[in-house]
Amino acid sequence: MNMEFYRKLPIPQDIKREFPLSESAERQLKRRINEMKDIFSGESDKFILIIGPCSADREDAVMDYIYRLKEVEEKVKDKILIVPRIYTNKPRTTGEGYKGMLHQPNPNENPDMLKGIIAIRKLHMRAVEETGFGCADEMLYPENYRYLSDLLAYVAVGARSVEDQQHRMTASGFDIPVGMKNPTGGDNTIMMNAIKAAQSSHVFLYRGWEVKTNGNPFAHAILRGYVDNLGKSHPNYHYEDLCELAERYKASSYENPAAIIDTNHANSAKRYLEQIRISKEILHSRNHSSEIEKLVKGLMIESYIEDGSQKICDNPVYGQSVTDPCLGWEKTERLIYDIAEKL
Question: Span 166-184, mean pLDDT?
Answer without folding.
Answer: 98
